[in-house]
Design goal:
Length: about 500
């Protein structure tokens, strides 16, 4: 449906609802003034409670039952009251001081209360034409009810004719359901209106049965006990609200649990794939490392060959040096794969933090020199931590090498350690391009990398080792201003995780 057709259809509905509302003005009766005042006062209380049956589908159940019940008691002038009261409240809200306005109730009327609307500020504002269409559809549904009842009850007292009320209810809900299928509302955005409205119509079936029962009780109370009886049964409609609210809360809880279960299933599948990759890479890496050792041996023999003056031999030595360098890089990748594929076991001993950090930095001096980067180290703390020294040294080394590779030639990588509040912190700062905010968690994901050459396992392994010690590894990085990776380790462990198997010294 084109926007123009939708707009024309919407204004036709608004015009029809306006005719019904204006016609209801002329049904005012002085004898029913107490009922009108009672209805107005009850509406202020009963249109507040509402239930979000579906996303963007708010329904004030007690208010709907009240309006329909008083329609049969005092006639169609109730339609006018229901349209005018929200407008009057808005006018009052705009004129009184703000400290008083906050105590005024909200009444959002129209078909939106039954089909697509909202109450108060729960949902975002809607275009005025949509709000007017919701009021119009609501008025048409009420008008249809009164039209059927007036034909069946010529004396104008339908409260004593339950069969007429029943037929009026059927006709009114049929009118609402038919108009609800028209693409008038903001949530009808998909091409298939039937598919969009199917869940709404299912809920309308439940509402029809529940609200209609209270409509009968309200009219019965009026027939048996007069206006006080109608008031009592109108207030009893609050029980309907609390029942549906409880059901709705349980539905939302089940939906949330289903979403969590789906997320856990996806995480389990992801971990199973990583486990399979780990097992496969362990076997492949062992086989490749054995063959690479043989290749490295022959490369070393070529580099040690005599007749260095021969141009062919010199070229072969140069090629062997290049092969040896490539083998070193490949060996590092395969070692990372082996580390990542192994089960995590920690052998914990107390170690001074300064010593562990210094050793990790020392191992990275060669990489720093190759990239033209200066390493600056400062760790004055004397704190001793229960650590698996090899794993923490490897974790910190991975972080420092990552900072070196991210820094421009001539840059400085700062490694600073400190102890505070029961935690040991090691911060590694570079002056590289930084890490975009969207990638700050992804950089610790296995096989994620932004480098042309890299496995994406260095930081993943580092975080795994740090978390196994009960610590954290995070990044604070502003694009264009470098990055700071902060490793935090507990100085006194309170207990290990399921994957940590410490061994006491001695």
């Amino acid at each position: 449906m084109t926007p123009r057709t939708r707009s024309v259809l919407r204004w036709l509905v608004i015009a029809a609802g306006g005719v019904v509302t204006v016609a209801s003005v002329f049904t005012f009766r002085h004898d029913d003034l107490p009922s009108y005042v009672t209805f107005a006062l009850l509406s202020l209380a009963l249109y507040g409670p509402w239930v979000e049956v579906l996303p963007e589908l708010g329904m004030p159940m007690p208010g709907i039952a009240l309006t329909i019940g008083f329609l049969y008691i005092t006639g169609p002038f109730v339609i006018t009251l229901r349209v005018v009261m929200p407008l009057a409240l808005r006018l009052v809200r705009a004129t009184v001081p703000e400290r008083w306005a906050v105590w005024l109730p909200d009444m959002v009327g129209g078909a939106g209360e039954l089909v697509a609307g909202s109450t108060a500020a729960k949902f975002p504002p809607r275009p005025r034409a949509v709000v007017a269409a919701e009021y119009a559809v609501f008025a048409l549904g009420l008008g249809t009810r009164w039209g059927i009842v007036s034909l069946l009850v010529p004396d104008g007292h339908p409260a004593a004719r339950p069969l007429a009320i029943l037929l009026g209810e059927v006709a009114g809900y049929a009118c609402w359901g038919t108009l609800a299928l028209l693409p008038l509302y903001r949530f009808q955005r998909v091409p298939s209106v039937r598919a969009e409205m199917r869940p709404v119509m299912v809920d309308l079936g439940l509402i029809t049965a529940l609200v209609t029962a209270f409509v009968f009780l309200i009219t019965y109370g009026y027939q048996a006990h007069g206006l006080p009886g109608a008031v009592v049964w109108s207030l009893a409609a609050l029980a309907l609200h609390f029942m549906l609210k409880r059901l709705n809360e349980r539905r939302l809880l089940v939906e949330e649990q289903n979403q969590r279960l789906a997320a856990l299933n996806r995480e389990l599948e992801h971990r199973e794939r990583l486990s399979a990759i780990g097992k496969m890479s362990s076997v492949v890496s062992h086989q490749m490392l054995q063959q690479l050792g043989v290749i490295g041996l022959y490369t070393d023999l070529i580099r040690s060959a005599q007749n260095g003056d021969d141009p062919g031999v010199a070229q072969a030595k140069a090629n062997a040096a290049a092969i040896e360098e490539a083998l070193g890089e490949l060996n590092r990748v395969l070692r990372d794969l082996l580390v990542f594929s192994r089960d995590l076991r920690l052998n914990l001993y107390p170690h001074p933090l300064t010593v562990v950090v210094a050793e990790a930095v020392e191992e990275c001096h060669g990489a720093a020199a190759a990239h033209g980067v200066t390493l600056w180290f400062d760790c004055p703390t004397e704190a001793a931590l229960p650590l698996d020294k090899l794993k923490i040294r490897q974790a910190l080394g991975n972080v420092v090498r990552n900072a070196i590779e991210a820094s421009p030639p001539g840059g400085v990588v700062r490694v600073e350690g400190a102890a505070r509040d029961g935690w040991a912190e090691v911060a590694v700062t570079d002056h590289g391009p930084g890490v975009p905010e969207r990638d700050r968690d992804a950089v610790f994901t296995p096989f994620f990398t932004t480098k042309e050459q890299g496995t994406g396992l260095g930081l993943a392994i580092a975080r795994e080792f740090v978390q196994a010690h009960g610590g954290t590894l995070g990044v604070d990085a502003a694009p264009g201003r470098g990055a700071t990776f902060v490793m935090r380790l507990p100085i006194a462990r309170s207990g290990g995780g399921a994957s940590v198997r410490p061994r006491e010294a001695g």
